Amino acid sequence: MTDTPSEQQIVRATPHSLERSCALPSAGDWLRVAPNTQGLERIEAHFDGHAYAPHRHDTYAIGYTLNGVQSFRYRGARADSLAGNVIVIHPDELHDGEAGHEAGFSYRMLYIAPARIREALGGEARALPFARDPVFTDGALLQALHIACADMQRPLEPLQLDQVITLLAQGLLSKDHSAGRLRPTRIDHRAIERARAYLHTNADQVVRSEELENVTQLNRYSLSRQFRAALGTSPYRYLTLRRVDRARKAISEGMSLAEAAVYAGFSDQPHMTRQFTAAVGMSPGRWQQVVCPPPRP
């Protein structure tokens, strides 16, 4: 379950602030829009009752329910999503939205242009993938959504965006074998090594997709697939772990947590704390206490 957004972070669900909704909202309704990330819109919202009148998007809408029962009509049938379920609504498909239980529901949703999915799949698909069921459980897609929505207060970094789009595209394709079967990934090992070395050297910087494309002469989505196949992780994850390595070393050598965050390449100390804890299993503060204990009297 997500923390309740602050007053500065939320948009109250009024008819003016929610262009997708045309019903009077409940006092408990809210919607938060994450900072702009090119090619991907991210929202988080809660509704106590009616949420959206029938409408269409020209994007894929891919999200998951945080709590409650999220209900909607889609392709002539009612669908109900519970906590942890993945939702996929295809472009130009009519749907609405409402709470399926009096407690309301909360959810997070990504809106992504079909062209980005098509680009990410490259030659792996003959057509845009179509998931027959709008609500299902899927660990890979849920992981991609968690990565995209882990920090709704910041835009995604370029490599992180590529990672999310690649995971979403491959997850969608796995739901529609008629769109084209996945083929074994060919790996340009020299290009992957150049990318790895570049990320290692520039871990304290924001690395843009165009930089890795220039270094490897691979497009960003092919690079993402090949990098994972060769090294078992994404370029962005590799970059993040190198930053964590830098932070651990800096803290061990006596640098303050705030200084270590800047030195390692994180945007700020809270960003470092989240990534450090996820990678190491303890917070930077706890790490500091363990590796730099005060001298005994």
Describe this structure in words.
The chain is α+β, with helices and mostly antiparallel strands. The protein folds into 3 domains: 11-173, Jelly Rolls (Sandwich); 184-237; 241-291, Arc Repressor Mutant, subunit A (Orthogonal Bundle). The chain contains 10 helices and 11 strands. It has helices at residues 114-121, 139-149, 158-174, 189-201, 209-216, 220-231, 235-252, 257-264, 269-280, 284-291; strands at residues 11-12, 30-33, 40-47, 50-55, 60-68, 70-74, 77-81, 86-89, 95-99, 105-112, 135-136. Strands 1-2-3-10-5-8-11 form a 7-stranded antiparallel β-sheet. Strands 4-9-6-7 form a 4-stranded antiparallel β-sheet, with no helix packed on it. Helix 7 packs antiparallel against helix 8. The radius of gyration is 21 Å and the shape is globular. It starts with 10 loop residues before the first strand and ends in a 6-residue tail after the last helix. 37% of the residues are buried.
